[in-house]
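If your schedule permits, I should be very grateful for your opinion on a structural question. I have a record of one protein: its chain in single-letter code and its fold written as discrete structure tokens. Would you kindly read the sequence against the tokens and tell me how you understand this chain to fold? Thank you for your consideration; the sequence and its tokens are set out here.


***
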Amino acid sequence: MEGAQLLFLDFEFTMPESKRKPHGFYPEIIEVGAVFVQEDVQDTFSSYVKPTRFPLLTERCKSFLNVSQEDIDGGISFLELMVKLRQYEGATLITWGNMDVRVLRQNCEAAGIVYPFQTHRDLSLEYKHFFGDRNQTGLWKAIESYGKKGTGKHHRALDDALTTYNIFKLVEKDKQYLVKPAPPTIGDRVDFSKLLKRVSTN
């Protein structure tokens, strides 16, 4: 992946008060964390985002994410979020799980905005296949399995995006250890300079 442009993205979303969702409810992005990488970190971005369909947060949502209505009311609009994300639209999007991409697509569709990314990698699936796990592993459990700690606080979008990036680096490093070296060529096995010198002296 040398030289590749990668965008590690994490969102937090609105939640209904209970399993019984209000009519027309769908999860809306209320916080974004983005880490843009090319060789190393080039840019990070973090902001709250104001929902439009259901602008008032439920008590469950505020409690689970530890956010206030005032936090969200002071955030950027979804349109402003998309203007920011379009700066990275040539990058490969990397998320932990597929929920972030599903919600972004749904929010784009609801707003009549074209979804900006062409390529996406679900790092949780890659982690699952790499380690042969039966089930997908949670983000912070995955980083702890490496003997590391997650960055900042869980369920803060930028912290989770940075943690995803850190797992990515660890997994990519492990993959390199498993790459089989190419079989030696005859040139590797025979020192032709010595062979030619021996032939010329005979």
